[in-house]
């Protein structure tokens, strides 16, 4: 096992709880390895290393190879968004002496898992004067945390009759920001004390960050579990941390890219946003984001740029869609086809196809390409396993693979097995993180 890699990975999780924070970390790591913003170049040649960002929430790294770029790229693709809660546009309100932040959950979550745990607020507030304020509250030991309350068992008879999906409503996932003691004075005094708690909270935000209530209209604040990734188990074989779907694969891809050198083919690692809600928007893989980035690279490497060159480049490319898989859970064995499940500590997980039930929404890799990947893994002594997400009729899921496959390139899903996927705290095996890193390195040099 690569011990330093695991240390670096936990640091990446701790310092990258939002897409913006991940992009910032990736750029810092890349610049230390000689990567430069593509805007610094007038042309690109073999060996040049560049990065391109989009809205500070997606980033791609490229190293130019020896062959013409229309021969295709070797691509590692992952996403850096994770399930969470987002602050609404008008989020702060007071209700009976308690001030709340109104939220809208993002991605597939079990809502009840987000109550009564310590939460932190990460994000940015963009002000009318053009300045941007970075916000992080709740991560340091001397900082306050936040929480969503729940009903005590003594009064929960009606709640416990509901389905798990219903007993915590989306509109009830509001974060407690502060409180004041209720006044017992006259009615006139009560009126003068209206929204006293909210006023206190807004005054503190003004003092700490210089932001007003109206500034929430142009804010992007994400509520995430507070605390650091930790070793798990007496044997320290596992990692417990937030956002490992899909930052485990994103980190391994970036780390492999930074420690590799392009050969004949140009190499690329792209980390995108919005996968958890369908890869939508300007920073998601379903947009023209990736082809626009590749077009920028082609324009600097080919004196006779054309749309045909771009199309050939994409169609001739190979990609590992780096995303996590559901680890086999012995406590819920009935949900899995054990012979086709990914085991914690079993190495990299390859999925020939994704989708749900009858492969709806699937990307389905060609066996010829899988054989080439298998050969590369064998040559590099990488441990891997072939798996599906669960039983056929039980459910399913997707990745960015089918968005890349629409260009005609070879795509195979590869990733880390995760227990408690999409929970506030997810579980991975250190061995799988190490093997994912080795897998990515081996893939980048496939010819």
Task: Describe the structure in your own words.
This protein has 447 residues and is of the alpha/beta class. 26% of the residues lie in helices and 25% in strands. It contains ten helices and 22 strands. The strands form five sheets. The chain has a nine-stranded mixed beta sheet, sandwiched between helices. The longest helix is centred in the middle third of the chain and has 15 residues, at 244-258.
What does the main sheet amount to?
Answer: 9 strands, mixed
- Structural class computed from helices and strand pairing: alpha/beta
Tally of strands: 22
State the helicity in percent bands.
Answer: 25-40%
Q: Over the alpha carbons, how many angstroms does the gyration radius reach?
A: 24 Å
Name the quaternary structure. single chain
Shape: globular
Spatial arrangement of strands, main beta sheet: 1-2-3-13-4-14-20-16-18
Beta-strand content bin: 25-35%
Low-confidence stretches: none
Separate helix tally:
10
Average residue-wise pLDDT: 94
Distance between the termini: 27 Å
């Amino acid at each position: 096992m690569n011990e330093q890699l695991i240390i670096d990975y936990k640091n990446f999780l701790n310092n990258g709880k939002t897409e913006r924070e991940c992009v910032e970390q990736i750029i810092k790591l890349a610049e230390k390895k000689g990567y430069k913003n593509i805007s610094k170049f007038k042309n690109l040649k073999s060996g040049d290393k560049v990065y391109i960002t989009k809205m500070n929430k997606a980033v791609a790294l490229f190293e130019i190879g020896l062959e013409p770029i229309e021969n295709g790229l070797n691509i590692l693709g992952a996403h850096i968004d994770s399930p969470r809660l987002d602050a609404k546009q008008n989020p702060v309100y007071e209700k009976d002496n308690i001030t709340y932040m109104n939220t809208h959950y993002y991605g597939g979550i079990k809502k009840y898992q987000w109550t009564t745990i310590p939460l932190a607020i990460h994000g940015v507030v963009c002000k009318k004067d053009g300045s941007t304020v970075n916000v992080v509250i709740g991560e340091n030991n001397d900082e306050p945390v936040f929480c969503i309350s729940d009903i005590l068992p003594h009064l929960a008879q009606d709640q416990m009759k509901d389905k798990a999906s219903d007993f915590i409503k989306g509109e009830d996932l509001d974060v407690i920001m502060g409180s004041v003691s209720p006044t017992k004075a006259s009615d006139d005094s009560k009126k003068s004390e209206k929204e006293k708690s909210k006023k206190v909270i807004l005054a503190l935000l003004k003092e700490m960050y210089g932001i007003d209530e109206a500034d929430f209209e142009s804010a992007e604040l994400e509520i995430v579990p507070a605390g650091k990734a930790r070793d798990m188990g007496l044997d320290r074989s596992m990692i417990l941390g937030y956002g490992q779907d899909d930052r485990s694969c994103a980190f391994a891809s970036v780390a492999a890219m930074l420690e590799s050198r392009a050969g004949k083919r140009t190499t690329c690692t792209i980390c995108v946003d919005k996968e958890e809600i369908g890869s939508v928007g300007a920073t998601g893989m379903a947009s023209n984001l990736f082809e626009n980035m590749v077009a920028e690279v082609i324009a600097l490497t080919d004196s006779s740029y054309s749309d045909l060159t771009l199309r050939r480049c994409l169609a001739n490319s190979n990609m590992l869609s780096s995303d996590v898989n559901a680890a086999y859970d012995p406590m819920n064995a009935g949900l899995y086809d054990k012979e086709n499940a990914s085991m914690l500590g079993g190495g990299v997980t390859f999925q020939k196809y994704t989708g749900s039930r009858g492969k709806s929404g699937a990307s389905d890799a060609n066996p010829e390409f899988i054989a080439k990947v298998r050969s590369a893994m064998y040559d590099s002594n990488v441990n891997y396993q072939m798996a599906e997400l669960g039983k056929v009729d039980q459910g399913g899921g997707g990745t960015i693979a089918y968005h890349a496959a629409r260009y005609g390139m070879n795509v195979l899903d590869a990733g880390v097995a995760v227990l408690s996927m999409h929970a506030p705290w997810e579980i991975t095996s250190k061995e799988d993180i190490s093997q994912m890193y080795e897998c990515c390195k081996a893939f980048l040099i496939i010819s």
